[in-house]
Amino acid sequence: IASWLAAPAPMGALDFVSPHTQGAAAFVFKGPSLVFDDAVGLIATNDSAARDELARLESKLDLSLREDLAATLGGEFALALDGPLLPTPAWKLVVEVYDPARLQASLELLVTRANDEAASAGKPGLRLEAEQVGARTYYSLRAEDLPFELHYTFADGYWVVCPSRALVMQALRARDTGESLGRSADFRVLFPGDGQDHVSGVAYQNLGPMMGSFMDLSRSAQLTPEQRRSLDALGRSTKPSLICAYGLPDGIQVSGTVGGLDLDPTSLALPILL
Which of 14, 201, 205, 250 is the most exposed place for a label (fewest CB within 10 A)? Predict the structure, then answer.
């Protein structure tokens, strides 16, 4: 699994994330097809019937999960929290895509098969809609019995997915104007001073603004003076931090910074969680 991480490379997916994002993670893999093959191989090692079950599933769906889904995607992806948490978390998912037409056709087929299953069980299905706005097509995916929806489009070799059309359009504006996290001087200055311009993965957080909102709420909450002082201290100490990973031929190198100062990444919770 460690070998899935690709060598350091440019990360165009971060150009769809605003410089005001509260957190983002981006990675470059050698390819989803490789990940798919390895995953199937790992499962088949412990389950001799896994490949036959996969073949039956693909026959039922009338598509190849490897060729019609995994192979349509590139190796680069980014996930960011790029706005408020409430009422709906403003997340963004940006994935490199090689063949958007084939991917969209596969998604439409999957929705059709899911709706067939739902109809046979007497349950509501999914609704996939497309709307042409100028030269661009925006898609939305909704379910009658689920409280969330997905909106997405394809742009400049990337698949941009968000919980609302407004966030998708915001991501496109960040890319078009160049006012993005990937091009932000405040973000770039956090990169370790090792002379390397590209990385294989990054994990970034800037929770200061969110902590400020929590402190504003705490002023009306029933907190003791000691609790309020602790919260204020936490807000003052929350600075942007960045963890970088470098895929090497014989290993993975990890380093990080916070507030422009070198930071031992083993002391952070984020890389431990990753």
Answer: 250
Kind of pairing between the strands at 201-205 and 23-28: antiparallel
Question: pLDDT at position 208, please?
Answer: 67
Spatial CB neighbours of 120, under 8 Å, sequence gap ≥ 6: none
Residue in the block written with tokens 């410089």: 19
pLDDT digits (tens, 9 = 90+) for 6-46: 999 999 999 999 999 999 999 999 989 999 999 999 999 98
Residue 229: its pLDDT value, please?
A: 67
Alpha-carbon distance 154 to 100, whole Å?
7
Please state, in angstroms and rounded to a whole number, the distance separating the CA atoms of residues 189 and 32.
31
Residues 6+ away with beta carbon under 8 Å from 194: 255
Distances (CA, A) of 274 to 10, 122, 144: 21, 40, 34
202 to each of 162, 175, 213, 254, how far by Cα in Å? 20, 19, 26, 10
In the numeric block, the tokens 């960040």 are attached to 174
Task: Return the number of other C-beta atoms located less than 10 Å from residue 267's C-beta.
Answer: 10
Mean pLDDT, range 173-194, rounded to an integer: 90
Question: Which structure tokens are listed for 64?
Answer: 């190849």
